[in-house]
Design brief:
With about 450 residues, the protein is α+β, with helices and mostly antiparallel strands. It is about 15% helix and about 35% strand. It has a four-stranded antiparallel beta sheet, with no helix packed on it. Helix 3 packs parallel to helix 4. The termini are far apart. The relative contact order is 0.09.
Length: about 450
């Protein structure tokens, strides 16, 4: 029978069942009321024997009771003597059984003005509400469904850039306006990577024909084209001040100084297949690179040389699939998180000084991108088949805090707003979604008041 159709007999029976369920929801409460009103179920109180006076109790149950029952038998002098004797031995009591003692008076070991400074009340942090749905959804037609590309970035001027086919679009988050930056010819396209410079004004665009274009977004004009470094498409880009690092399908990693005429200053050779992930550390000293050869390399800027191929600091082979997702920790400079493709499905954490793998978590699906929360110890990952979800992890326990669903295909790209609170995701379902996953912007905290040190008013012994 269809779940939505109900006849009269079933409605009456369902109402009966509902009444029974309502009666059975609070059985303890009903039993408690019956027990309290019935004579056979009265509570049994056990008195505190240490607080009892058994001699006085015995007297009152024997001699004292006789005196009260036969008041005429006693003379006035005997009654006066009894009252005087009762006052002397504290026998003018009506209560025999004591059920509890009075609590002792607390003794303060420290004056109250010092106890607050020694044991300050620790405020409990309210649990952050994580919205389960995206706050905004935009169409992203012609988004290339390619795991090895990097087609979206959010600049420091709050403008998001996304490549859709041969065209790069700019979306201004401050007012929601959209503009077209450039459309590449078919023989040079499609666009394979985009990356904002630190100033949020200039942007690098990697192309399928191995070239990289530099654009001024405010003037909407091309500044220069980088040629001759790569032989195949450029799928990954990373800025380090004025150095633009490019990674190609040819396995090469090239540092380009965009200020000079001949921009190539270093070349890193270590990957055997396409470089699909590049990230500089916050200090600009170390570079992490991931490739389709399942390799993760750590390079050191101080060891770079323009004369020969620079040797890596660490060559890490723990992943069993392509390494695209890379994220440097904002609160620990030598901590790097990496994610593996569909054959690996793991998020790994590395000490980039020693090359040691600190932890590995099997997520159960392809890891496409990783982002750290700038204000909390949390990590966000985007995934592919089967759920195409975003997963928020608590670090270092790696307990799942939330799973956000909405995309119907793998979530290939993630970008974080300048304030670190909103995350944009682009998926193969050709939609761009915005999630308020990291909470509201953090308000600057006032400088804490310095509490007076205990006994500071007392002269110290020098």
């Amino acid at each position: 029978m269809d779940a939505g159709s109900v006849n009269s007999s079933s409605s009456s029976s369902s109402s009966t069942i509902t009444n029974l369920k309502e009666q059975s929801r609070s059985p303890l409460r009903e039993q408690y009321l019956q027990k309290k009103n019935s004579r056979e179920n009265l509570d049994r109180f056990i008195p505190n024997r240490s607080a009892m006076d058994f001699d006085y109790a015995h007297y009152m149950l024997t001699d004292g009771r006789k005196d009260k029952e036969n008041p005429t038998a006693s003379s006035p002098s005997r009654e006066a003597y009894r009252k005087h004797l009762a006052e002397t031995f504290n026998m003018n009591r009506t209560r025999i059984l004591a059920f509890k003692n009075k609590p002792p008076v607390p003794v303060e070991s420290f004056p109250p003005q010092f106890s607050s400074s020694l044991h300050p009340d620790k405020p409990t942090k309210p649990r952050r509400n994580i919205p389960q749905t995206s706050e905004r959804t935009l169409d992203a037609p012609d988004l290339v469904d390619d795991y090895y590309l990097n087609l979206m970035d959010w600049g420091s001027c709050n403008v998001l850039a996304i490549a859709l086919g041969n065209t790069v679009y700019l979306w201004d988050a401050s007012n929601g306006s959209t503009s077209e930056l450039v459309t590449i010819d078919d023989e040079n396209g499609p666009v394979t990577s985009v990356s904002w410079a630190p100033d949020g004004q200039h942007i690098a665009i990697g192309l399928s024909n191995s070239e990289v274009q530099l654009w001024d977004s405010t003037a909407n004009r091309q500044l220069r084209t980088l040629r001759g470094g790569h032989r195949l498409r450029v799928g990954s880009l990373a800025w380090n001040n004025h150095i633009l690092t490019t990674g190609g399908m040819d396995g090469l990693i090239i540092n380009n100084d965009v200020r000079i005429r001949s921009p190539i200053v270093e070349t890193y050779r270590g990957h055997e297949q396409e470089v699909c992930g590049l990230k500089w550390s916050a200090s600009g000293q170390q570079l992490a690179s991931g490739g389709n050869d399942n390799l993760l390399h750590i390079w050191d800027r101080s060891m770079a040389s323009s004369n020969s191929a620079t040797q890596w600091v660490h060559r890490l082979e723990d992943h069993t699939s392509a390494v695209k997702a890379l994220a440097w920790c904002p609160f620990q400079s030598n901590l790097l998180a990496t994610g593996g493709g569909g054959g690996d499905r793991c998020i790994k954490f590395w000490n980039t000084h020693t090359g040691a793998c600190l932890n590995s978590v099997d997520t159960g699906s392809q890891v496409c991108a990783l982002l750290w929360n700038k204000n909390e110890r949390e990590l966000l990952s985007s995934h592919g088949f089967t759920q195409n979800q975003l997963t928020l992890w608590k670090y270092p326990s790696m307990v799942k805090m939330a799973e956000l669903t909405g995309h119907t295909s793998r979530v290939l790209f993630m970008a974080q707003s300048p304030d670190g609170c909103t995350v944009a995701t682009a998926a193969a379902d050709e939609t761009l979604r915005f999630w308020n996953v990291f909470g509201a912007p953090q308000v600057a905290k006032p400088a804490p008041k310095v509490n007076a040190e205990p006994f500071s008013h007392i002269n110290r012994i020098r």
